[in-house]
Amino acid sequence: MRNIFLFIRRYFNFLFFMVMQMVALYILFHYNRFHEAAFMGVASEVTGRVNEKYNNVEYYFKLKKTNEALVKENEQLRNQLLQNFETPDTTKQVVSDSLFRDTLGQTRKYLFRAAKVVNNSVNFQNNYFTIHRGENQGVKKDMGVISPSGVAGSVIFTSSNFAVVMSLLHSQSRLSAKLKKSGETGQVLWDGKNASYLTMINLPKSMPVNKGDSIITSQYSSRFPQGILIGIVAEIVDDKSSNFYTLKLKAATDFYNIEHVNVIENLQKEEQKKLEEAIKTNE
C-alpha cells in the first residue's frame, strides 16, 4: 500500500495531466458533433479490424471441426444421390428387409462411408494409403474409395479399425472408364512417372476426343457408381501404328494432399458375383 502512495506522489503531475486530458477529450467528443462523428468512425474502423483479426484466428483453430462437419455432410449427401439406387428391370419386386429402399421403392445399390486418411505414399511404383476405418465400421476388401474430387483407389487389406487402400498410383491398378461426352469406354492405369497424371488406353480413334474432356467411371465397374470423375484429358497421344488413342489425364484426386475419403459399398455386388460365377461353372 505504501508503494502505491509513493508511486502516486512521484508521478502525481503526470497522472493528473492524463486525467485532465481524458476529461478534455470526453468533453470535446461528447459535445461537438463533428469530432464525435470523426471519433466514432475511427473507433469503428479500429474495432472492425481487431474483430476481423480475432475472427481469422478463431476460424483457423476451428478448421478441424469445420472440416469434419463438412465430411460428415458430404457422406450424407452422397448417400441420398439418386444414382445410388437402381430399379430392377421388371414390373414386380420382391421386398427384402436386408436391402435399403427409398420412398419410391428403389433398391439402394451403393452406400458411402466417410473415412480419414492416416498414411499415404506417392513416390513409389506401387503406392498405398491407410484409412482409419476398418471391419468394425463396415469396410471390406475390394470396396472402392473416392476423394471429394474423384476416384482414389480400392481397399485391399482390412483390420478391425483400419484399412489399406491400393491407390490409383499403383502398377497393378486398372479401372474401367469412359468419355463423359460420348460414353466410349477404355481403361485407366498409371505409368509410374508422375503422381498427378494417369493414362487411359483402348479408346478407339473413331471417337472424337479433345483436351479438357472429362473421363469418368463406367457402368462396368462393380466398385464405383458410374459417373465419378477420374481425370481430365491433358494430352492426346496418336500412335499411327494403332487404332487406339492413349490419353494422358490430369488426375481428379490430388494424391499429394489426400486427407478425407469415402468408402463405397456395392450392396448388390455379391448377388451379381454369384450369378456370374455360376455361369462359369456351367460352361
Gist?
By secondary structure, the protein is an alpha+beta fold.
Record the SSE blueprint.
Elements: H1 2-10, H2 12-31, H3 33-61, H4 63-79, E1 85-86, E2 107-108, E3 110-120, E4 126-131, E5 144-146, E6 151-158, E7 163-170, E8 175-179, E9 185-189, E10 197-204, E11 214-217, E12 229-238, E13 244-251, E14 260-266, H5 269-282
Antiparallel strand pairs: 1-2, 3-4, 3-14, 4-7, 5-6, 5-14, 6-7, 8-9, 8-11, 9-10, 10-13, 11-12, 12-13
Helix pairs in contact: 2-3
**Mean pLDDT score:** 81
Strand content: 25-35%
- Across the major sheet, the strand order is 3-4-7-6-5-14
Give the strand tally: 14
Structural class: alpha+beta
CATH class of the largest domain: Mainly Beta
Radius of gyration: 31 Å
Helices and strands, in N-to-C order? HHHHEEEEEEEEEEEEEEH
- Total domain count: 2
Low-confidence stretches: 88-99
Q: What gross morphology would you assign?
A: elongated
State the CATH topology of the largest domain: Thrombin, subunit H
Largest sheet: 6 strands, antiparallel, barrel
Any idea what the CATH architecture of the largest domain is?
Answer: Beta Barrel
The end-to-end distance, rounded to whole angstroms, is 103 Å
> What percentage of residues falls in helices of 4 or more residues?
25-40%
CATH superfamily of the largest domain: Rod shape-determining protein MreC, domain 1
